[in-house]
């Protein structure tokens, strides 16, 4: 199997879908001519291969970028637009939250908006809270959207291809730290269905539920737990909206314990939703209270050493798990 | 009814006072006192040297990514027009203006060295912190201006932003509010010809950025942004107008980003060396120095002495900074300042980390 980073996997997905369907085009700030002449970045080389009409560098205008996606998608194009960093989605949010998410409903199902908004997220590169702010729970609070947050290169590729083919607006969130970590990606054509979680490690003692960059942390934590005699199951949600309740509940009913791990801040974070579902539908299976391991309720600190304390790590996870064993 | 023209006064001027050889257009001389001229020169030199030093520190891994200002030092001419009670609202390329207004170099190093202290605004200095979301700070400057009017104080808010920022809706909403409410806001657009890898020509179809003022019926002017005298003169006109109740102005400083967008990129990948060389001929410091030498305000010895002096100042600031950070950071500090009073839920999270850290120590 080929070894690709998530950046390369996203790049392959974009390439393949652009070749497959002329309606697919890309727009965003620096998606064509980039300052990063780095083959590991998701849109590297696409301008050269597909030309400036299909790979559009835009002015600095997030609302217009998202609006371009809304308007062009109703005409049947399949835009894949990029918001450079997650916090800047606030500027594009009218288009995404009030329009992309709602116009199908308002049109009585007549109009479809097959668009993808890709955005880079994640702390860990010392750029402070106005660059790093994981807002997936905001997005997941918007009916009409699909919210995808892959944790491995292979998932990113298969899910992005599905997102591009999906007739609904999909918010596709990529953690930048994953751009540079290689992983196996199948050579042959494949897609991964949106709305399907994946059990990344089978275990019997506790369900660790996570997504995006934290899946890697969960797997590391599971390794340490194994050395301590705890057999953890790692459930990678991959899609937050629509949520795969079945995989979640099956796992928790089996293990009887739940720890949710995400990088975003705790209060109002998506872990709350997971815990609520489990409390509603699997409370009787729980042998111990569930736990959340998350970033604290503060903006991401600028300082790299402080940032390391901010981002949950495998030790935080192990401690939380051991606390309910 | 036949079509008829609507009478609009549309005018956009370009003002340059010192040409590339340092020759002064006497008719336009803003008559800046000699000591202020020398202070402006020193501030530009300090900014250049500090910028160079930060690049070295970044390459050594001592500070993180930052946005170099090389070539845009003449902005201090605008900051120099402000009174202490006025407000400076920077983006991320206004280090020279921030220093002029009293921010310390240590504090800049704190910011890019990754310490929250960098955003701290010392008592009595009316600067807002660096703003990362492009163009957003233009709106703050309207709010500041609104408050000034509300309180009846005669202050002014000057907001800096780039050519790229004029593509954001925020900029247009800010301009409209400022014009409708007639706030004492000066919009200072540093057109450095690039927004990361997008050239000015592909950022806006408008011939000038200054002309965007016309749509909001406020004065707009283009200044030679590499000529500190023009920057000073144009900014003074706008600040005086704002202070006397005449409302906002849009100023476009035509300048050039001689260095990289941030230390994370290599501009050679997307722009020609020739373009950079053309702009190097218009270096704002070289030009101003020629002028000052011509007027005998600077001599060879004087320049050398000042450069030495400036380098020392940079070195001393760096030493103070190193000493400060040598004391280390307390992870618990990251919980401070998020709220005026720490909410109980956050206190609990802080205590959780405190426990964890003390357990680790044991
Ligand atoms: C809202 C927002 N979108 C995108 C970015 C990423 N970004 C940082 S600087 C920049 C270009 C800004 O260009 P300009 O306004 O000309 O300022 P300059 O960097 O040239 O000083 C962009 C797109 C950002 N910081 N904020
Ligand atoms: Mg610019």
| Low-pLDDT sequence parts of chain B | none
CATH level 1 name of the largest domain in chain B: Alpha Beta
Spell the H/E element sequence of chain B.
EHHEHHHEHEEEHHEHEHHHH
Describe the sheet with the most strands of chain B. 6 strands, parallel
Task: Give the strand line-up of the largest sheet of chain B.
Answer: 1-7-8-4-3-2
What's the domain count of chain B? 2
Low-pLDDT runs of chain A: none
Name the CATH superfamily classification of the largest domain in chain B. Answer: Thiamin diphosphate (ThDP)-binding fold, Pyr/PP domains
Principal-axes geometry of chain B comes out as globular
By oligomeric state, this entry counts as heterodimer
Distance between the termini of chain A: 38 Å
Q: Please identify, by name, the CATH architecture of the largest domain in chain A.
A: 3-Layer(aba) Sandwich
Radius of gyration of chain B: 22 Å
Give the CATH class of the largest domain in chain A: Alpha Beta
Helix-and-strand structural type of chain A = alpha/beta
Give the cofactors and ligands: thiamine diphosphate, magnesium ion
Euclidean distance between termini CA atoms of chain B: 90 Å
Mean pLDDT score of chain A: 97
Strand order of the largest sheet of chain A: 3-2-4-5-7-6-12
Instruction: Give the total of domains of chain A.
Output: 2
Task: Write up what this structure looks like.
The complex is a heterodimer of chains A (325) and B (362). Chain A starts with a strand and ends with a helix. Chain A is an alpha/beta fold. Chain A has helices spanning 6-20, 46-50, 62-74, 89-100, 103-106, 136-140, 153-165, 213-227, 245-255, 270-281, 304-310, 314-323; strands at residues 2-4, 24-28, 55-57, 78-83, 116-121, 146-148, 170-175, 183-185, 198-201, 206-210, 232-236, 239-241, 258-265, 291-295. Chain A has two domains: 2-185, Rossmann fold, CATH 3.40.50.970; 198-323, 3-Layer(aba) Sandwich (Rossmann fold), CATH 3.40.50.920. Chain B contains 13 helices and eight strands. Chain B has helices spanning 34-59, 76-79, 95-100, 105-113, 137-151, 169-181, 200-203, 212-215, 228-243, 273-280, 284-294, 300-326, 344-361, and strands at residues 13-15, 87-89, 157-162, 185-191, 194-195, 198-199, 220-224, 249-254. In chain B, helix 1 (34-59) packs antiparallel against helix 11 (284-294), helix 4 crosses helix 12 and helix 5 (137-151) packs parallel to helix 6 (169-181). Chain B is globular. The termini of chain B are far apart. Chain A binds chain B through residues 29-30, 33-37, 57, 59-64, 87-88, 90-91, 126-128, 130-131, 266-267, 296-299, 301-307, 309-310, 316, 319, and chain B through 64-65, 111, 113-116, 118-119, 131-136, 164-165, 167-170, 195-198, 202-204, 261, 264-267, 269-270, 329, 331, 333-335, 338, 345-346, 349-350, 353, 356. The structure holds thiamine diphosphate (TPP) and magnesium ion (MG). Magnesium ion binds at residues 162-164, 192, 194-195 of chain B.
């Amino acid at each position: 199997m080929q070894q690709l980073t998530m950046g390369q996997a996203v790049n392959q997905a974009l390439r393949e879908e652009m070749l497959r369907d002329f309606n697919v085009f890309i727009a965003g700030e620096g998606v064509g001519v980039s300052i990063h002449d780095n083959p590991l970045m998701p849109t590297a080389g696409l301008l050269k291969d597909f030309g400036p009409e299909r790979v559009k560098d835009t002015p600095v205008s997030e609302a217009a970028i998202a609006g371009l996606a809304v308007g062009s998608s109703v005409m049947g194009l399949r835009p894949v637009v990029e918001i450079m960093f997650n916090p800047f989605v606030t500027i594009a949010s009218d288009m995404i939250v009030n329009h992309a998410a709602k116009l199908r409903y308002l049109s009585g199902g007549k109009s479809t908006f097959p668009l993808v908004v890709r955005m880079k997220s994640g702390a860990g590169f010392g750029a402070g809270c106005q660059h790093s702010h994981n807002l997936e729970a905001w997005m997941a609070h918007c009916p009409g959207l699909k919210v995808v947050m892959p944790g491995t290169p292979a998932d990113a590729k298969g899910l992005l291809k599905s997102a591009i083919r999906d007739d609904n607006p999909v918010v596709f969130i990529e953690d930048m730290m994953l751009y540079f970590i290689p992983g196996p990606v199948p050579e042959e054509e494949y897609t991964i269905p949106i709305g399907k979680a994946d059990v990344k490690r089978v275990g019997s003692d506790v369900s660790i539920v996570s997504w995006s960059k934290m899946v890697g942390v969960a797997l590391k934590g599971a390794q340490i737990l194994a050395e301590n005699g705890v057999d953890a199951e790692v459930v990678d949600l991959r899609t937050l909206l629509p949520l795969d309740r079945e995989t979640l509940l099956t796992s928790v009913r089996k293990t009887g314990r739940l720890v949710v791990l995400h990088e975003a801040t705790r209060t109002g974070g998506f872990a709350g939703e997971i815990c609520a579902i489990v409390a509603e539908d699997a409370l009787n299976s729980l042998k111990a209270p569930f736990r959340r391991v998350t970033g604290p309720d503060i903006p991401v600190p600028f300082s790299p050493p402080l940032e390391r304390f901010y981002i949950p790590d495998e030790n935080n996870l192990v401690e939380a798990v051991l606390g309910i064993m | 009814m036949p079509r008829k023209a609507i009478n609009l006064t549309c005018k956009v001027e370009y003002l340059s006072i010192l040409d590339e050889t340092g020759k002064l257009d006497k008719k336009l001389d803003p008559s800046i006192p000699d000591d202020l001229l020398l202070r402006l020169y020193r501030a530009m030199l300090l900014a250049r040297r500090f910028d160079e030093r930060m690049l070295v520190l970044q390459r050594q891994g001592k500070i993180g990514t930052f946005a170099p200002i090389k070539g845009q030092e003449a902005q201090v001419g605008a900051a120099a027009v402000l009174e202490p009670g006025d407000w400076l609202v920077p983006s991320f390329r206004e280090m020279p203006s921030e220093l002029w207004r009293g921010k310390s170099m240590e504090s800049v190093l704190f910011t890019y060295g990754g310490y929250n202290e960098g955003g701290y605004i010392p008592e009595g200095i009316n600067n807002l912190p660096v703003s990362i979301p492009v163009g957003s700070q233009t709106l703050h400057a309207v709010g500041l201006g609104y408050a000034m009017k509300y309180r009846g104080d005669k202050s002014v808010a000057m907001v800096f932003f780039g050519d790229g920022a004029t593509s954001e809706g925020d900029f247009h909403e800010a301009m409209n509010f400022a014009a409708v409410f007639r706030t004492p806001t000066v919009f200072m657009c540093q057109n450095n010809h690039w927004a990361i890898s997008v050239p000015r020509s592909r950022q806006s179809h408008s011939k000038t950025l200054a002309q965007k003022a016309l749509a909001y019926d406020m004065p707009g002017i283009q200044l030679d942004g590499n000529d500190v005298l023009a920057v000073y003169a144009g900014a003074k006109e706008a600040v005086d107008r704002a202070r006397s109740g005449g409302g906002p102005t849009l100023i476009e400083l035509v300048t050039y980003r001689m260095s990289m967008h941030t230390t994370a990129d290599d501009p050679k990948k997307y722009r020609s060396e020739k373009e950079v060389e053309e702009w190097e001929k218009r270096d704002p410091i070289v030009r101003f120095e020629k002028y000052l030498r011509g007027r005998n305000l600077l001599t060879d010895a004087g320049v050398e002495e000042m450069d030495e002096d400036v380098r020392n100042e940079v070195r001393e600031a760096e030493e103070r900074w190193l000493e400060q950070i040598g004391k280390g950071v307390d992870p618990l500090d990251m919980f401070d300042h998020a709220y005026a009073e720490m909410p109980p839920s956050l206190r609990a999270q802080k205590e959780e980390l405190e426990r964890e850290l003390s357990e680790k120590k044991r």
